[in-house]
Amino acid sequence: MKEIVCKLLVIGAGPGGYICAIRAGQLGVDTVIVEAVKAGGTCLNIGCIPSKALIHAAEEFEKVSHMAGAKSPLGISVETPKLDLAKTIAWKDDIVGRLNSGVLGLLRKARVKIVHGRARFRDGKTVEVETETGMQVIRAETVVIATGSEPVELPFLPFGGAVISSTEALSLKTVPKKLVVVGGGYIGLELGTAFAKLGAQVTIVEATQQILPQYDAELVKPVAKRLADLGMRVLTGAKAKGHSGDALLIETTDGEEQRLPADKILVTVGRKPRTEGWGLDELDLDRAGKFLRIDDRCRTSMRGIHAIGDITGEPMLAHRAMAQGEMVAEIVAGKKRTWDKRCIPAVCFTDPEIVTAGLSPDEARAQGYDIRVGQFPFNANGRAMTMLAEEGFVRIVVRADNNLVLGIQAVGSGVSELSSAFALAIEMGARLEDIAATIHAHPTRSEGFQEAAMKALGHALHI
Ligand code: FAD
Ligand code: NAD
Fold it and tell me: What is the DSSP letter of 334?
């Protein structure tokens, strides 16, 4: 049995773990990272990156299909386009492969030792890993748990056969004729929309009264309209009950049972922390619900053990995991750091996209703020018009007494790229006057951000 002794052991090489290990390596910390499957974790291999590749391919296919129907006002017409999904998936796999090698290269460059295999805790300072060349024991002064999350499985709809999770959906070789998606949240809507654009008949079954229940109705409205335009069926207040032959059984809000014919049933009802089956239970760390409880330095209840990323709870986003990973590496290297972020932006890559940073109007009111809201629609933005993307708006939420920005939201085509400007404004403590006084390049959709600030100040120029 081989044994390694190190200062820092990171378990899991997803965005949280690999960033933590790279930063620790850069700071000269003797670091080992263990990964059971593939470097890059959920995000790079079966999450953010492959889903965005599929979404982009679907967008392109839908665009040309639209033109083939001679419906394009741009005066462009094309022959009937064809799709070879197996090729699309191979293209996506190539991107994943390149990024995967990139992460391994960055780890090596930072002099991080990479161990392939599943880690299992022996005690709070020691893990054992079954590797291809035998058992490896690793002892560390500090351990970072970054084992991420996995899809929630419904007991009456176990994964297998026609019932698939996002992982299988991202590697289908043909487009299902009839796709039923259980769960109208992030993944269900991102992937459901992509498959509708690729030609599937898609039905979304959402248990609550609204798709994307985490967002307010105003933000979701343009997305719901687009789903209808794409011919997608959306059943809200409907619960999946089971699976019989080639159909999903559901119960609607009024208690009626329905059969929804389906070639594939994609279950996207949330994700749960990967806490079981690798000795974590025996450490008896404090929990916050199903997740590991952490403090503002990502410390767990056991000395010398930190946790980062999805295993620590909502929001389960890659950029939060990365920011936590970077902070923990610096703490281990002796720097004084605490979690002092004012916001974690979130983007839903639907059509159109939704961005949120900071507080929504309702959240700000619930926190006791007296607020003012400025909103600017993209149908008054020249760049949006030239891109056939007039749906949506930018909205700014500020404190009524001093114009401090509390939150910014947008829905519209391509607004994901505005998320950094929104987060920067909040992080820098911007006031409406700062945004209004910043020259925004013309013609860009970002002008909608400046105009929303001007609107809240009472002097929008283009509306
Ligand atoms: P993970 O990425 O889950 O990585 C954990 C790693 O730990 C895995 O590689 C796993 O193999 C390894 N591991 C687990 N147990 C062990 C063990 N015992 N020993 C060794 N290794 C182990 N987020 C966004 O911000 N933007 C998006 O657009 C986005 N899109 C998504 C799309 C989909 C379809 C999905 C499923 C998720 C998406 N997410 C997105 C969420 C994002 O993927 C996660 O928030 C992120 O991956 C969490 O990072 P992590 O490092 O905490 O864990
Ligand atoms: P989610 O929490 O976004 O959505 C799950 C949805 O399923 C909810 O709307 C819920 O009401 C519904 N639901 C639950 N049980 C149901 C049932 N029995 N029948 C019908 N509907 C039911 O979860 P997700 O879409 O699985 O995504 C998981 C996580 O992954 C997200 O919370 C997010 O953190 C992350 N993610 C992020 C992005 C992004 O940043 N763009 C993309 C994909 C995933």
Answer: T
